[in-house]
């Protein structure tokens, strides 16, 4: 804690300096605006130029799914990402207008979850799991390899940085991610949230090379690849209405042999989980 009451100057490291500058009894870390977001504020593009009538209709459709409008905020943020490839200041204002919330309420949610991007994303988002099991199985090495492959030895790509121009074909935003809930298939990578299991450095390089060349390799499980914006539209809850188109665009195998192996062995051997009420609760020491 510091007694300084200096006001931080705006600039690239404002977030680091804001904590010290808060001073007194205030012990919070304020979040400085992302430079890309700050640019959006300055540009002040009219909302209807970005979010046209079709997007407004979709927003109303999302809101109608919930008894209380503010409950629609998470899919609404996916909807704005499907338009711009990130949550801009205009995207925050759009959600706030539609849901009758303040910009601060929307911004607080948008900056809490890592799935909401604060800078424009590439055509594809490549997420490398570097949590414990994947890291031990090669995830750390894969992430490092992709950093230099998509950047260079001297200037490796950083977290949430993009190789190429965001939104342009073949551009890739790279991130390392926490556990992606596929530890039995470690190390894993996701592209636009679809799984590529049992990865190696060579497989990962071949994957991003294919993406940069405009190809869409088939994920190991899940839906066929689309783009980051396409995936965001699905996350907002919009899918092809035609059943055949839905099956082509969205459907895919959801489980892996490895994931089911334990259940299959248990079935073959007649193992069942004990019924909960038959298990005595352990003694808890009184404190
Ligand atoms: S540690 Fe990578 S999926 Fe769990």
UniProtKB/TrEMBL annotation:
Alphabetical list of Gene3D superfamilies matching this protein: Glutaredoxin, NADH-quinone oxidoreductase subunit E
Q: Which CDD domains match?
A: TRX_Fd_NuoE (cd03064)
Q: Which SUPFAM superfamilies match?
A: Thioredoxin-like
User: What keywords were assigned to this record?
Assistant: Iron, Iron-sulfur, Metal-binding, Oxidoreductase
Cite the GO molecular-function annotations of the record: NADH dehydrogenase (quinone) (non-electrogenic) activity
Enzyme class, first EC level, given as a word: oxidoreductase
So what EC number does this one have? 1.6.5.9
The signal peptide, as residue positions, is none
Protein name per the record: NADH-quinone oxidoreductase subunit NuoE
Source taxonomy? Bacteria, Bacillati, Actinomycetota, Actinomycetes, Pseudonocardiales
Q: Which gene encodes it?
A: nuoE
């Amino acid at each position: 804690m510091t007694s300084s009451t200096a006001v931080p100057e705006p600039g690239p490291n404002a977030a680091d300096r804001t904590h010290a500058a808060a001073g007194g009894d205030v012990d919070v870390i304020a979040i400085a605006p992302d430079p890309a977001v700050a640019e959006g504020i300055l540009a002040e593009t009219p909302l209807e130029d970005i979010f046209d009538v079709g997007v407004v209709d979709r927003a109303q459709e999302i809101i109608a799914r919930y008894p209380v409008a503010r409950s629609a905020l998470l899919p609404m943020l996916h909807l704005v990402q499907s338009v711009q490839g990130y949550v801009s200041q205009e995207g925050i204002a759009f959600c706030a207008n539609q849901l009758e919330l303040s910009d601060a309420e929307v911004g607080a949610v948008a900056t809490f979850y890592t799935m909401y991007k604060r800078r424009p994303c590439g055509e594809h988002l490549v997420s490398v799991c570097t949590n414990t099991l994947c890291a031990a199985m090669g995830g750390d090495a894969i992430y490092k390899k992709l950093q230099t492959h998509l950047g260079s030895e001297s200037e490796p790509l950083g977290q949430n940085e993009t190789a190429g121009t965001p939104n342009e074909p073949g551009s890739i935003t790279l991130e390392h991610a926490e556990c992606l809930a596929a530890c039995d298939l470690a190390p894993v990578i996701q592209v636009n949230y679809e799984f590529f299991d049992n990865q190696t450095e060579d497989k990962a390089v071949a994957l991003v090379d294919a993406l940069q060349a405009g190809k869409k390799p088939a994920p190991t499980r899940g839906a066929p690849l689309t783009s980051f914006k396409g995936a965001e539209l699905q996350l907002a809850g919009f899918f092809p209405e035609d059943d055949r188109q839905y099956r082509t665009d969205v459907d895919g195998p959801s489980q892996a042999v490895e994931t089911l192996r334990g259940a299959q062995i248990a079935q073959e051997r007649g193992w069942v989980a004990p019924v909960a009420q038959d298990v005595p609760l352990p003694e808890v020491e009184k404190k």
